[in-house]
Design brief:
The chain is an alpha/beta fold. It has two domains: 192 residues, Rossmann fold (3-Layer(aba) Sandwich); 183 residues, Rossmann fold (3-Layer(aba) Sandwich), CATH 3.40.50.1260. The protein contains 17 helices and 17 strands. The strands form four sheets. It has a six-stranded parallel sheet with strand order 5-6-4-1-7-8, with helices on both faces. A six-stranded parallel sheet has the order 11-10-9-15-16-17, sandwiched between helices. The protein has a three-stranded antiparallel sheet with strand order 13-12-14. Helix 9 runs parallel beside helix 12 and helix 9 runs parallel beside helix 16. The mean pLDDT is 93.
């Protein structure tokens, strides 16, 4: 059980000692456009862990990433520094270096309570390579920084599914603890498993088709959820798998987008789990404005689920005790096609609502229900994989660390 695993990993209090240097891996990877951060939810969340560490008198070194090399959102973390200072209400030092002489000098010269943010970890090519933890301890990142630190605190739930140096290498090199965000995530998700599926509904939307299908299968097979109601591109795939209706132009678009293998996989799940999986029966499209059409009249890629589907899903929400929302029902950047997500989230806010993924959080903000959610996850793919029952590399590494080190 996940709750048993949590008790085996030391929490942050074990790693907070005045005068000790702690390396904190957070995930403040944020949506960015034109050099500006569009949503600072993760930064706000992780600032709590950093504040606790600073107030305890620890010398805090912060490691994080933003985007991937070659992508538009791959930027320096200097813009994140301003947001951290805003929420921490204290100075955050910054160095445009990770393992070089300047970074190491600034780490050595930190005073009690001071916070240093390192440059984007992914300027190091080794950080984007996934390998077994033992191999990651031999990277420059781990070999250069671990001798300068007394403890490692892992708080980056959103990157917990990756076997990268900053995630799994440091726990094997330093006594390690879980941060506030990471512990909160695991404890909230453990409530799902404790219910053993009874009264648990998954609203599975968004565009991460492969990951979501995989998670759905695990959740249903292990009886961690009672039912799944699909939407977004995930729902579109399941509608095609269930009803098999496509005109020639829509079929061409589906083939070009590479969705055909997912349709075959969705058919297998429908055959296996039957009506435990619900697919949309109508959709909203853009024809000089929002128009709802039934599945048999759909002749273009949909932008939201339709009104009849919403009413069907509202009934499923009413019958549930826990509602997990992972991915929106439609294209939430456009208010016309955010309507179904907003309505369903408002209806689900009366239940024990768990939100996962950046676009889901954006939908919840539009619905005005963030403050009514039981838990808001900072993770996207990590959230999906965890609720699907997959073992997270970060969790495994922290368990290994707990067995390996003593905490003085």
């Amino acid at each position: 059980m996940l709750s048993d695993v949590i008790e085996q990993i030391p929490n942050i209090s074990r790693c907070l000692k005045s005068g000790k240097t702690i390396l904190v891996r957070i995930d403040i990877n944020s949506p960015i456009a034109h050099g500006k951060i569009l949503d600072d939810f993760r930064i706000r969340a992780h600032s709590q862990t950093l504040r606790v560490a600073s107030e305890a008198g620890a010398r805090v070194v912060v490691a994080a990433h933003q985007g991937r090399p070659g992508q538009e959102d791959f930027t320096s973390l200097e813009i994140h520094k301003t947001y951290l200072e805003k929420y921490l209400e204290r100075e955050v030092k910054f160095v445009d270096d990770v393992v070089g002489p300047e970074a190491r000098r600034m780490i050595r010269e930190l005073k009690n309570g001071e916070i240093l943010l390192l440059e984007n970890l992914r300027i190091l090519s080794e950080e984007v390579i996934e390998r077994v933890p033992e191999a990651q301890t031999e990277t420059f990142l781990v070999r250069k920084l671990s001798p300068l630190c007394n403890y490692f605190v892992f708080d980056g739930f959103a990157v917990a599914h990756r076997s990268q140096p900053s995630v799994v290498g440091f726990p094997l090199a330093l006594p390690s603890c879980m941060g506030l965000v990471f512990e909160r995530e695991l404890r909230a998700l453990s409530t799902i498993f404790e219910k053993r599926g009874r009264g648990v509904l998954l609203l599975a939307g968004g565009a991460k088709i492969s990951d979501t299908i995989k998670a759905m299968e695990q959740l249903l097979k292990n009886n961690h959820v009672e039912r799944v109601a699909t939407g977004g591109l995930v729902g579109f795939v399941f509608s095609l798998a269930k009803y098999g209706i496509m005109n020639s132009s829509l079929k061409s678009e589906v083939e070009k987008s590479g969705y055909l293998p997912y349709i075959d996989r969705a058919k297998q799940l429908i055959d296996k789990f039957g009506d435990r999986i619900q697919a949309p029966i109508d959709y909203a499209v853009n024809k000089n404005g929002r128009i709802d059409v039934d599945i048999y009249s759909l002749d273009q890629m949909p932008l939201d689920v339709g009104r009849s589907t919403v009413m069907q899903y509202r009934e499923l929400v009413s019958q549930s005790e826990i509602v997990i929302a992972s991915g929106p029902m439609g294209y939430i950047e456009d208010d016309r096609f955010a309507a179904s997500s907003v309505e369903l989230l408002r209806h689900a806010a009366g239940k024990k609502l768990i939100l996962g993924g950046g676009h889901t959080i954006l939908a919840a903000e539009k619905a005005g229900v963030l403050d009514r959610a039981f838990h808001i996850s900072t993770g996207g793919r990590a959230f999906i994989q965890t609720i699907g029952g997959e073992e997270m590399p970060a969790v495994k590494a922290l368990l290994t660390s707990a067995r390996k080190f003593e905490y003085d």
